[in-house]
Structures are given as C-alpha cells and as structure tokens.
Amino acid sequence: MSALGHYIEEEGIATVAIGLIRPQIENTHPPRALWVPFELGRPFGPPADPEFQNAVIRAALRMLGEGGGPVRIADFPQTDPRERPDPGWHPPILEAPAADHSPAALADAFVAETARLAAAYDRSVAARARTTLGLSGLPIAEAVDYVARWLRGAAPESPVGDMSAPLALRFAIDDVKAYVLEAALIPGSKPSSRQLGDWLWTKTATGRALFALRRAHLDAADERLKLIAGNFIVPGIRVLAAG
Amino acid sequence: MRLGDLPAAMAKRLAELECPEFATRPWVAGPPLAERRVAIVSSAGLVVRGEKPFRGRDPDYRVIPATTRPDQLLLSHISINFDRNGFQEDWNVVFPLDRLNAMAAAGEIGSVAAAHYSFMGATDPVQMETHAREVAGLLRQDKVDAVILSPV
After folding, report:
1. Which chain A residues are Cβ-neighbours of B151 within 8 angstroms?
2. Chain-chain contact of A41 with B82 (C-beta, under 8 angstroms)
3. Taking the CA atoms of chain B, what radius of gyration do you get in angstroms?
4. How far is A177 from chain B (nearest CA, A)?
C-alpha cells in the first residue's frame, strides 16, 4: 500500500497511507503513513462506528497539511472497541457435530446447515441492505452444491464459464464463508471477528467440511488445486490452532 | 495490527515481507484540507459487482465510481488471512466513502473524487507501478489532490 503511495506522490498527488503492519511501513518509506493498531482487514477500525472511523480518517488527512516530510509515520492511539467480544451475541444455529466424519457425511451436514442458515442470512442482509456474496457469480445453493461435490470426491467441471474449476472452487468457498458469516451478523449484536471465527471454524458443519476439503486436496496433482487447498480455504491461524 | 497478537511465525513473515526500494522521497504539498478533493485508493481487491474479480496476483486496478452503492462492492483479495467480517458488516471499514461524503457535506474536506480505485495488495508492488502511475493520471484529470490509501 505504501508503495502505491510512493508512485502516486511521484506523479504529483499528495498521499497518506493507512498502514496495518508497522515494519512494512517503515521499510517502504512512504511520504506519509498512519499506522493503526487494528486487526488486518479493518484499516478504518470498527464497523458501524462512524465517529471512530471519522477519527481515523481525520488523523490521516491531517498529515497532508503538516510538514515534517518526506517520510512521516504517525501512530493512531486508539484500539478498536469491536475487538472485545459481545457477550450478548449468540450464533444463529448450533449443530451437534456428526459422529460420521466421512466426506459424504460432512458434505451432507454442510449442505443441510447452509439451508438452515437461510432465514438468519436473509434477516441479516435485510438489516444491512447489503450482501458481500457474489465472487463466484453462483446463487448460494449452487455454490454450496459445487463445494459439496468436491468434498464428496468428484472433480466437477467449472460451473462458471470464464473460470477454471479450481478458481470457481476458490470463489465458491469465499461465497460460502461470506454467507455463513453474514448469517451470524445478528442485527443488534456486535460480535468480534474472533467470536465469529471461533464459531465458524470450531462449531459448524461448514467449518468441518472446509477443513476436510483442505486436507483432501493438500497433495493434489493439480497444482492450482493444491495451492487453493493449502492457502485459500482455511485461514492460517485456524490451521495452526487446529494442530 | 499489533504483531505481538499473532503467532510468532506469522508475525515474523509479515514483518519481514520484502518491500521495494525507492531512489526518491517524493513529498507534495497542497491547499488546506477544506479545499482538497479526496480519493480512496484501496489494495483490498475491491470490485464492483458484475466486474471481473481479481484473480491471483493481478497487477492492474479496478475503477469504483463514486456512485457505487454499498451492496455493489465485493472484496476479491486473494488472501484469506485477514478479517472480512468488518467489511461484511460495514463497507466503510475498508472503503470509507460514506464518511468522506459526510465530511465533504460538512465542509471538512473540499469534495470527493468522481472515481476511486482498487488494486490487489498481494501483488508485487513493482508490477503495479505502471498501473499506479496510470491511476495517478486519472486522478489528476479528476482534479484530485489528496489520496487516502487503504490496505487490508
């Protein structure tokens, strides 16, 4: 990000970068950067908190009017209040883990769970007037079915005209995760990302199915599939936690 | 991000990620904030719904018109090792267009650009250089004189 700032500033436009990883800012020597102590993925801090987000933007834009450069790095002093868990948040559904861990049983449980989440997902989307699904271009039921077919051991053709089968799988998985996590954004609650992630990866059939899909293709002959299994299904921190 | 919150190996990898070396140290001054036209340039792999998502480490960029609505913006960054719940709940966490529009309406900034831009942050920055300079040209045409760069 800081590198982009360098190129754009060289072209004559003043820039200020929000930076999440301080050593990377320091190593890139951007014209101006504001380091924020928020988790990766949240450069402007907590969701649905305009005042806090404004404070971050103001701190960054203020640097444009200050001297002291080139290369000015400032630190934003506040932490993200949404890192704290919301004790009032509860997952939309709780599944008892199936005793049968065969790929077919995991796939069945995954498909059933996503169907059961439909009402919660619809409520969540209605409350925010928005969804982030759509990377695969597939309706969610088709994305779920495509992921489930891979888990059952098939190597299905791509259901998306201009995507290879592994790429369609990657985006279908992105859509499935977004669907399940958006279903868990219960209107009125303020869950932390850790609460949501703990639920997805340790309590749901979807999480178990995705872990199984990862394991099944880690040594795939198709290099693209192997890459996706190793890097783009389960977050690294969750792989480490699972041991 | 407080790197100490991450597992040590992951923190080390992020801290030691190779960064490009630059021969220059550019520094552009400008008018007071209340007169500036502000654009967002994001590296979150953002795309407007219906456009081609970023695939792998594409070095090019996508245009996000200022008329884009929150339900039209998707995040296609290749990495899954950052939080997406914030963006799912509120696009301003990654793309604070509502905040900038409110600041412009209040006279805090001069105006908001007609278009914003997104790259795929996992791409080698050197490969993005030509595209970044192209974006700078588009920003100049739009009379933008302040860019806020937003990572994930």
Report:
1. 1, 17-20, 43
2. yes
3. 16
4. 10
Instruction: Judge: B151–A17 Cβ closer than 8 Å, yes or no.
Output: yes
pLDDT tens column, A112-145: 999 999 999 999 999 999 999 999 999 999 999 9
Q: What is the mean pLDDT of chain A?
A: 95
Split at pLDDT 50, 70, 90, the class of A201 is very high
Burial B2-34 (b: 16+ CB within 10 A, else e): eeeebeeeebeebeeeebbebeeebebeeeebe
State the smallest CA–CA distance between residue A99 and chain B in angstroms: 29
pLDDT the model gives residue A198: 97
Nearest to A4 among B10, B137, B149 (CB): B149
Domain ranges of chain A: 2-82, 103-242
Bridge partner residues of A74 (DSSP): A34
Indicate if the pLDDT at residue A1 is higher than 70.
Answer: no
Q: Which residues of A touch B43 (CB under 8 A)?
A: 1, 4
Task: Render A36-98 in DSSP notation, one character per residue.
Answer: --SPTT-TT-STT-HHHHHHHHHHHHHGGG--S-SSEEEE-----GGGS--TT---S--PPPP
pLDDT digits (tens, 9 = 90+) for B115-152: 999 999 888 888 999 999 999 999 999 999 999 999 99
Give the best residue of A8, A21, A51, A193 to mutate against chain B (max B CB count within 10 A): A8
Å between B57 CA and nearest CA of chain A: 13
